[in-house]
Amino acid sequence: MAMNIDPDKRRAERRRSTKETEVSVALVIDGTGAATADTGLPFFDHMLAQLGKHGGFDLDIRSRGDLEVDAHHSVEDTGIVLGQTLAEALGSKVGIRRFASVALPLDEALVEVALDLSGRPYLHYEVAIGEAAPLGSPPFEVQLAEEFWRAFAYAAALTLHIELRRGRNPHHVLEASFKGVGRALKDAARIEASGIPSTKGLL
Fold this sequence. Notes:
Blueprint: E1 2-3, E2 11-17, E3 21-28, E4 35-38, H1 42-55, E5 58-65, H2 72-90, E6 99-106, E7 109-116, E8 122-126, H3 144-156, E9 159-166, H4 170-188
Parallel strand pairs: 4-5, 8-9
Antiparallel strand pairs: 1-2, 2-3, 3-5, 6-7, 7-9
Helix pairs in contact: 1-4, 2-3
């Protein structure tokens, strides 16, 4: 079930329930950066909070899944529901800037993010960290970040490029990625005109 709450503030809520997971997301695009997440994966919660904080979103994410199997279902389904919620909150996309990019440093790590709120789902993810140990407890496998971004990009129908320019610490690299996507989303979603930013008249 989904509903738009307040047309004056771009926001939406979504829930998704399967045999593997139950996920709910509430999102206000034009928020204050107050972001919380409770997925049963503390490291993932930390990353989602960074996404909301640096996106300027009011964001609340709740997820329960079969972590006794592994974290894949929870991470992927959270990406799906968050992407769907963002797409609904953006609505017709009238007046948005649409494109944005950022190079975001975190200590030795430097990650470049570029995105287009295009209506065309695509992910390019080039973040090679090598054989990295899982982060947090329960463990968050580093490769799950790519699964999250793919699910998010396709559910939100946006084009997303994430590339690691340099970095060795997996925590720093992933955190720079989440912060970078947040900053780029904030910029791309900003209202700066009155029409649809496409010659087709539709995004």
